[in-house]
Amino acid sequence: MTDPGNDKPGLRRLGAPSKPAAPAPKRSKAADALATKATDVLKTEFDKALALKEKLAGEAVESSEQKGRDPRQAEKLRSLVASLEGMSRFAIAMGLLTPAENRAIWSEYMGKGLYEGWR
Fold first, then answer.
1. Helix, strand, or coil (residue 81)
2. What residues have CB less than 8 Å from 108, skipping those under 6 apart?
3. Per-residue model confidence as pLDDT tens for the chain (119 residues)
4. Quick one: pLDDT at residue 42?
5. How many CB atoms lie within 10 A of CB 57?
6. CA pseudo-torsion sign 72, 61, 44, 21
7. 73, 74, 76, 77: CA torsion to nearest 10
8. What residues contact residue 47 under an 8 Å CB cut-off, 6+ apart?
9. Rounded CA gap, 109 and 6, in Å?
10. For 94, which DSSP code?
């Protein structure tokens, strides 16, 4: 709940990542290579999730009954996104990515429509 005299909103709003207040962390060459690899792996998994989402949307257009679509396909997409959340947390916990780097990846794929059209 917010104070009537306080101009700050009471809810946190998510959006595109803003410029970080602190500079990017100084990493060794090996740590930088691991961060790059972690980013690439996450983006590959996000691309797979988007591909599955496009496939499901295409099947819905073609009449799911004629194509023999398994109704659990949408659940697969949700579980894949849940796996991405776990991978992201793991990368942060291991120090491979900073929270800001992770948010940038999520923001990029949310902008590409990862969550659009979910029921």
1. helix
2. 46
3. 444 555 555 665 666 666 666 676 788 999 999 999 999 999 999 999 999 888 877 776 665 555 555 556 667 788 888 999 999 999 999 999 999 999 999 999 999 988 876 65
4. 95
5. 13
6. negative
7. 130
8. none
9. 34
10. T
Angle at CA of residue 103, ends 97 and 117, nearest 5°: 135
Helix (H) or strand (E) holding 102: helix 99-111
The Cβ of residue 84 has, within 10 Å, a number of other Cβ atoms equal to: 19
Residue type, 103: R
Can you tell me which residue has the tokens 């797979």? 48
How many Å apart are CA 2 and CA 59, to the nearest integer?
46
C-alpha atoms less than 13 angstroms from C-alpha of 31 in its C-beta half-sphere: 11
DSSP state of 21: S
Q: What is the pTM of this model?
A: 0.67
**Cβ 85 vs Cβ 45: under 8 Å:** no
CB contact at 8 A, 86 and 94: no
